[in-house]
Write a structure and sequence with these properties.
Layout (H helix, E strand, L loop, with lengths): L8 E6 L6 E6 L2 E7 L13 E2 L5 H11 L16 H11 L7 E2 H7 L6 H9 L12 E2 L12 H11 L11
Parallel strand pairs: 1-4, 5-6
Antiparallel strand pairs: 1-2, 2-3
Helix pairs in contact: 3-4
């Protein structure tokens, strides 16, 4: 008889300049970062018991990011999605701090130049926002388009990363 391995999930909630963030770990590895009111946010009951222990390093790196001291996250992640989604999320992680890419550019990098809409759908399903920087993706003209956390947050994150004068991450 074969047994299916069980997964253990835990979560914690931390404050950020962009509102409360819910961090989720699957078997001790960060698998989710969700904003309040985020589109495609899984149901709370899937997050597991509340326990801050698995989140020391993610919280430390998020604090450094929000303080303007960290521009690239270095965390193990457990991203669950289709192979295409995981490919898109890997491309998102390559977008440098303070820069943007269009959906079409990402599709081209994936070798699928006609797949900008599919890239947008995968981008919207990114389970680890901010750390996997889906906010750095814009429309072909450079316009702000869709963001699961809301366009206001997207604009504020981009302004923060670009060091816009007077833009400090105030509480959302």
């Amino acid at each position: 008889m074969t047994t299916t391995p069980t997964t253990t999930r835990h979560h914690t909630v931390v404050d950020s300049p962009y509102g409360a963030l819910t961090l989720v770990a699957t078997d001790g590895v960060l698998s989710g970062l969700y904003m309040t009111g985020q589109r495609h946010r899984p149901p709370e009951e899937t997050f597991g018991a509340r326990d801050p222990r698995p989140f020391g390093e993610p919280i430390r790196q998020l604090d450094a990011y929000f303080a303007g001291e960290l521009t690239e996250f270095d965390l193990p992640l457990r991203l669950e999605g289709t192979p295409f989604q995981r490919g898109v999320w890997a491309e998102l992680a390559r977008i440098p701090y303070g820069e943007t890419r269009s959906y079409g550019e990402l599709a081209g990098h994936l070798g699928k130049p006609g797949a900008s809409r599919a890239v947008g759908l995968a981008n919207g399903r990114n389970p680890v926002g901010i750390i996997v920087p889906c906010h750095r993706v814009v429309g072909a003209s450079g316009s702000l388009t869709g963001y699961g956390g809301g366009l206001d947050r997207k604009q504020r994150l981009l302004s923060f990363e670009r060091g816009a004068e007077g833009e400090t991450p105030a509480l959302f």
